[in-house]
Design brief:
It is found in: Cellular thylakoid membrane. Monomer. Forms a complex with a monomeric, partially assembled PSII. This is probably the complex in which D1 is assembled and/or replaced. This protein is an all-alpha fold. The chain is built from five helices and no strands.
Length: 132
Amino acid sequence: MKRFFTRLLPLVLVAIIGLVGCSSNSALITGNYSQDTLKMVDGLRTAIELPDDSPDKAQAQAEARELINQYASRYRRDKSVLTLTSFTTMRTALNSLAGHYSSYPNRPIPEKLKKRLNQELRQVEAALKRGT
């Protein structure tokens, strides 16, 4: 009986860890590139445009970081989107915002960066409408 439990315990632990690890917020990115990119644009705009004194600012930034991580890990090696204008522009915007969050986590986003990010997000939307 002891031998049975010693073999069963590791299997149960692996199953629990696997289920708990997979149950996180993984539904944010669906795998549909156009929908995911538009979701990213909306999420980033929300994080960028919230006033600095807003109580939801920290939560919006945390959600934006999570979206950035999921989006980048999903599409950075997808050869079908690597050459799309919308992807390269989105990647530039994501890198800029992620760099600011990493380097200056407690500082507000500078107006110059906000302006550039909004311009890049408009370019991404236009490129998605064109299908590029």
